[in-house]
Structure formats: structure tokens, C-alpha cells
Amino acid sequence: QQQVKQSPQSLIVQKGGIPIINCAYENTAFDYFPWYQQFPGKGPALLIAIRPDVSEKKEGRFTISFNKSAKQFSLHIMDSQPGDSATYFCAAVNSGGGADGLTFGKGTHLIIQP
Amino acid sequence: DAGVTQSPTHLIKTRGQQVTLRCSPKSGHDTVSWYQQALGQGPQFIFQYYEEEERQRGNFPDRFSGHQFPNYSSELNVNALLLGDSALYLCASSLVAPNTGELFFGEGSRLTVL
Hints:
Helix content of chain A: under 10%
Number of strands of chain B: 11
Structural class of chain B: mainly beta
Strand content of chain B: over 45%
Number of helices of chain B: 0
Oligomer: heterodimer
Number of helices of chain A: 0
Largest interface: A-B, 27 and 29 residues
Distance between the termini of chain B: 37 Å
Helix content of chain B: under 10%
């Protein structure tokens, strides 16, 4: 059972455009939602994270929007650059569960064309 | 400040063999988690170690086992390798407290089972 559904699987955007990646979750116990960025040959790196008590969080050009009632959240990348080309993963966890691992989406392969 | 280091970076095994992967956590971190990332998929949680004990396990068989040493470093062992065990194995470190849910990943060990 896939508990975090991510779309689209791949995305091509022109430089300066705003790619949007969407995720939906099922487990209402999840209370921490990070996004990870992974470049080829590297491990995932934390990009930005949100908790369900806020509807939006911005860090630089990256913004998370969160809709608790719909159990959905999304990542927007403003003024996208070719260097943003990577695979992006949304994830979720019940942080109160102590040792619970992150549940990841299947990833979105993003290409920013010059 | 060294981040999470993993070894080996690549290895090839045959079906039925056993493998041991190693991880040194980020300085100051006391908790190590292991994830399996199949090609084109998101990482899947294997288990987490804290105070030299396995605290939580994902949906992986007993062929997957681990260990944490007093210096917080960790090993992942996989016995009776199957073709389906071919994947990137990621180690992630964190602090058990405060539990922010933030994980720092290594670059992984790429295992190929022939």
C-alpha cells in the first residue's frame, strides 16, 4: 500500500517557469512533511519541510503549500534554473512515533531547460 | 564537519551470498536509519538504530539485519541475497532528540546482485 502518492512522475519546464509537484497522503497520523532533492549519484538532501499547522512555507525559491483537509501538499519552485534539475521526493512521517521511518513518494524527475 | 559516510560505494554479489554495508553518521548524531532505494523509486525504510538497538523496522524480511556500535556507526547485513535486493542502500543519521524528523543521508552503497 502506497501511503504517499506523488505526481507527476516526470516534468520538463523552461528556465524561469514554476514547476509544481503534488503529493497526497492517507495516514492521518503523519505530522511532518519534508521534501528531498536528489542529484544523480548522490543521496537525498533535505530541501524544505512543513508541519500541518501551517498552510504555506517559503525558503528561498522553494514553497510548500499544505491542505490538511484534503491531505495534500505541493512543492513550487519559483524562477526555476537548470541547476534545479534533479529528482524530488515528498515524504511523510509520524514524528511522535519516535522511531518511525519516512514514507517517501516515488519521486518526480524534473528537468529545467535553458 | 564530515557528513554521513558510507562504504563501499559499489559492490557486486551473486545470489545466495551475504553482504555487509557500513555507515558513519554525521558528527554529533546518535541515530542511524537505513533505506533501500530501487532504481526509479523512492527510498524505503528498512530499520532504525539508537543506543545499539533496533527501534523500528519497515516491511523487510529477517534476511536484513543491522548493528550499531558504541561510536554510533552502523552496519547493514543482508543474507541469502536475491536478485531483487539490487538497489542503492542509503544510510541516514539524525538526533533522537529533539525529534525534528530531519535526516542527513549519505551517498549510498550501490549493490548489484547477479
